[in-house]
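Forwarding the complex inputs:
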Amino acid sequence: MELGAGTPLEHFRADVRAFVAAHAPGHQVRSGVRSPENAEEYKDLQRWTADLYAAGYLGADWPGEWGGSPGHDPLRGVVVAEEIARARAPMPPSGSSLAANALIGFGTEDQKARHLPPIRSGGHLWCQLFSEPDAGSDLASLRTRAVHDGDGGGWTVNGQKLWTTNGQWARYGYLLARTDPEAPKHKGITAFILDMALPGVTVHPLRELTGTSDFNEVFLDDVRLPADALIGAPGQGWTIANASLAQERNGVGASVVRLQLAVQDLIRDASAVRIDGRPALEHDDVRQQIARLSAEVDACALLARDSTLGHLSGRGTPTDAPMAKLFFSELNLRIAEYALTLLGPAGVLAEGDPDAVAHGRWQDAYLYARAYTIAGGSSEIMRNIIAERGLGLPR
Amino acid sequence: MTGHDLSDTAELEGDLRDGLRRLLGDHCSAATLAAWCDQGRRTAPELWRELALMGIPGLPVGEEHGGSAGSWALAAAAQEELGRRLAPAPTVSGFAVQAALAAAGTHTDALAALAAGTARAAVAAGRTDDGWIPAPDLVATEHASGWTLDGTVPVVAEAADATLLLAAAGDRLFLVDAAGVRLEPVDALDPTRPLSRAVLTAVDADPVGDPGQAPRLLAAAQRAALVALAADAVGVAAEATDLAVGYARTRRQFGRLIGSFQAVSHRCADMAVAVVSARALVAAAAEALDGPPDADTDIAVALAASDALDTAVAVAAGCIQVHGGIGFTWELPAHRYLRRAKAAQSLIAQPDRLRERAARALLDTAPPTSVAAGSRR
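Prediction (whole assembly, two chains):
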């Protein structure tokens, strides 16, 4: 099921696996996209990011002059993400790589020279400032305003961003703001570099239903941006955002690896939990259920693989990614739900209690699983896209 | 429901629900509850005092035993309202212990104190997928002067400010003064129904009933607890539905109210149907508890509990999904509903096992039919 089995990619995978085992931070991450929980984890993440760039496992797709490897096989990026996920190690900050994609594609030479090296060194972590309270699934309706101060001048930004991963740690933000409220909604958006230390930028960690703080609210009040904060041209923001997001396909493979790990965990815990005096794993209905989930994970892996290969070969369809996302997020939720069912009476115990099975991480995974069926376009939106663009059903 | 005709009952229930909603609106608002949870509190003595003044703890017990109504139907209605507001009040366990004492016909003082709300009781039993059993680690010893209990019960619900424990040890049930028991907090998925670990060291214990009666009394306690928990789950689901519908009516995306998208409106409709059907099953089970226990009582309780407990989880999860991103925040109470629902699902007996129990009872009492050709095994 793995990409590139029996090819040079397999040797590459072995190298990455050894590298991750030797260099990844010691702390094991929770389910989902999470922020560092303390300054120590943040420092670990910076060092880990630097190690990955230095080894060429990140940024290989960058231009040679900025440290990339010309002729780089894009599937290698997928393999790297998969192996990081397999080790349950923290993912390098996606905001930084998204910003790098945008700067490489649309930034000035000066912007690249200023920002790409500190991204490689792990010194500057970036967050993505896209979503807003009233612009979630409908991102193009974002309302944060950037007003041009006049000839040669900078911009003044006002608005609020939401769901900002790593916002509390980030040195820079990759910001989308509306510069032309008269233009059609996709056309009036512009991309900016936001120095998070500027006056008027306030970051509030957001506590999620899990009880942890992985996202932030970012308030922008009369923030004065210099002229060279602009990425690309005014009105080009939507194009830039889509281009930089489209390059970030590596996470799909990593998500599938997490599902495979979840099934392994399920089997581990089904061996430990006893039902009617026998290990749960010896019960027919439990075996059936785990086998069914495992088969669905295999199907998800194939979907994700085909989606990635289709994208890279240019033969993809607009519904490949939505199908993979819908399938993954709903399956991920069902696995966590089944795990809690399997724990039976122990399901009431949460993280922190010594008697909690698997340190209560299933409870955390169960609660966090909601994020995947909502974030990045909810399951309902995915179904709309599949129905309208894939099946040709009327809107 | 002897002594009341149907319209009286409906009126009583309506008055009870209205009174409770007013009380809980004052004492158990979303903000009050959030503060209570986030401060790590485990008891709500003021709320309990108000509930006791209203006669809520004594609803299942007749006036002759110090209770207020003698009606499980009213107790279930009250518990639904408590679930709606996620009230941190230990009524489920209190009702369970009252049921056991009433079935034993002894300990009338304790029963009266529980009904009056001056005592609060929790159940210290072993927990299995099928429900309560004698606590495996609890040892009862008989002395010349009486009994003592030693051992640990890993999870006891609603014991944080209990004054009494009903302990199942060996082949007996005992009533224990909680003051002599070490109750340690346990980290729980649902802070509104706190869990404790009970550690007993040579604690004096008062036997309830004879050894032969223990299974029957524990079953009576469990039936009452399941009906109360199921009623609570209906309240959780009802409020989660209201929250979702309220949001779907006001949240705009893509230039429309999201409730106008059928993906959202159909989900809300399914939630509403699930709530209504669960409430009907719970009402039937509560009525069954008001009569003498028989095989049909067990079926009614198992069906109501399995349906309501699963419904609450599905509906609370649906509530989060309808809210989208904001549903994923700590600030919105949706997660508190999901936590209360999910914890209830595995608190006493697993819904699939309850369904299995009902199925067995239904099939065992069904008239034999000829078996068609072939069997699966």
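The first strand of chain A starts at residue 126 and ends at 129.
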